[in-house]
Amino acid sequence: MTLAIVGGGLAGAKAAAEIRERGYDGPVVLYAAEPHLPYERPPLSKGFLLGRDPLDSMYVHDAAWYAAHSIDLRLGTQVTAISPADHRLRTPAGEESYTRLLLATGAYPRRLGLADESGVPVVYLRTIEDSERLRTAFADRPRVAIVGAGWIGLEVAAAAREAGCAVTVYDLTDLPLRAVLGPEVAQVFADLHRAHGVELVLGTQVTAANLHAADLVVVGIGAIPEISLAQTAGLQIANGILVDAQLRTSDPDIYAAGDVANHDHPLLDRLRSEHWDNAIEQAKTAARNMLGADEAYDRQPYFFTDQYDFGMEYFGHVGPYGYDTVVIKGDTTAAFRAYWERRGVIVAAMHVNEWGASDEIRASIGTTSKG
Ligand code: FAD
After folding, report:
1. Is the CB of 364 within 6 Å of ligand 1?
2. CA 81 to CA 54: how far, in whole Å?
3. For the whole model, what pTM was predicted?
C-alpha cells in the first residue's frame, strides 16, 4: 500500500509523522511544491519576520528525520494531476501510483488588483521568501500601508512598528477582527494598535491615493484554498475540498486536511479553518483514517496570535448563529479572558497573557455561563 501526501506544509509533514507513529512501515511519499523542508508559517509574521527566529526553528522535522523514517520527501515537486479512477498521480517527472492519498495543499493569498497596479512594491505574506522580502524592506523604515485588518495584517502591523516603520492599516469594516471577535473584543485590538502608533483607517475602501502615500504595501485580505488538483480530479468542491466528518473527500481513497479542507464537523457547522492547530490535528486524524481507522474529527477550533506584548489563545467557534453576550474578565490593556455565550452556554473563549489558564478556558467551551 503506497500512501501519497500532496502538499509539504504543516499538515503534510504531520500526517507523515502520524503514519509512522501508528506503525505503518510501507511506502510513504510526500510531494512538496516548495523547495524548503515543510515548515510552520506563524513565525513568518512574527519572530522570523523580525529576525529573532532562525529558519531551522520553523521546520516541522529536520532533514534527517525524513531519512530516518523512510519518508520519500520530494521537495520542489508539484503534483500536476490526480486520476482517482486508476489511483495515479502525475508530477513533471512522470506518473506514479498510490493506494490512498491525502490532499494537504493549503491556501494562497487573495490578490488585490488595486495594489498590484499601484506601482508601489506589494507583499503578500505566505512563504519564507515573502517574509524575507518584508524583513529586508523593513530595514529601510518604509511607510507601510497594510490592507486588511485580519490576523496577518495586524501581526504585520505590530512587527512593522517594532521595526520602526510608520504603519497605516486599512479595512472595510469599522473594527479590526470584528467578524471573529465581535465589537467588544475587536475594540481591544483597535485600542492596542492605536496605542502603539498604528493609524487605523476603518470602515472605508482603500484607494489608489492611499497606496501611493506609502513606500510598501502589504495585502492581507484572506486566503483562497488550493483546490485546483481536486477540482480537475472531479472531487466535490465548495469553499475548499468538501470532506466528511472523517476527512474523506467524495472519493473514498482520497482525504483532505488543513487549510484546504472544508470539513463536516460533527459538533459545529461545516468549517474550513485556516489555523495551525487545525492543520496538525486534522492531518493526524486523516492519517489514522488512511490506515483504516474511522474517526470523526470533532476537536474544537483553536488558534493563537502574538501582537506586541499581547499573547492570545482562542478556543471554540461562535459560528453563524452568533452570540448573545460576551463576558470580559480582567484588564483589557494587560491580561484578560473573554467568554462568548449563546443561550447561557459558552461557545468560544479566549485569553490574553493568562497562559496558566489555557486548559481551564478550553474546558469551559460547552459549559454554562461565566456571567
Ligand atoms: P500550507 O501551510 O499552506 O501548506 C501547503 C503546502 O502544499 C504548500 O507548501 C504548497 O506549496 C504545497 N502544495 C500546494 N499544491 C501542491 C501540489 N499540487 N503539489 C505539491 N505541493 C503542493 N495560524 C495560527 O493558528 N496562528 C498563527 O499565529 C498563524 N500565523 C500565520 C501567519 C502567516 C503569515 C500565515 C501565512 C499563516 C499563519 N497561520 C497561523 C495559519 C497556519 O500557518 C496555516 O493554517 C497552516 O500553515 C496550514 O497548513 P497546511 O499544511 O494546511 O497548508
Report:
1. no
2. 35
3. 0.97
Torsion of the alpha carbons at 55, 60, 65 and 71, rounded to the nearest 10? -120
And the C-alpha cell for 97?
A: 501510483
Produce one character per residue of 161-188: b if its CB has 16 or more CB atoms within 10 Å, e if not: bbbebbbbbbbebebbbbebbbebbbbb
* Residue 265 DSSP class: -
304 Cα–ligand 1 center, Å = 15
Please tell me the distance between residue 212's alpha carbon and the centre of ligand 1 in angstroms: 30
**Domains identified in the chain and CATH numbers:** 3-108+223-290 (3.50.50.60), 111-219 (3.50.50.60), 309-363 (3.30.390.30)
Give 169-221 pLDDT, tens digit per residue. 999 999 999 999 999 999 999 999 999 999 999 999 999 999 999 999 999 99
Residue to probe by mutation, ligand 1, list 41, 110, 305, most atoms within 8 Å of CB: 41
- Please, which pLDDT band fits residue 319 given cuts at 50, 70 and 90? confident
pLDDT-derived band at 161 (thresholds 50, 70, 90) equals: very high
Structure confidence at residue 321 (pLDDT): 87
Round to whole Å and give the CA distance between 290 and 112.
38
Average pLDDT over residues 252-260: 98
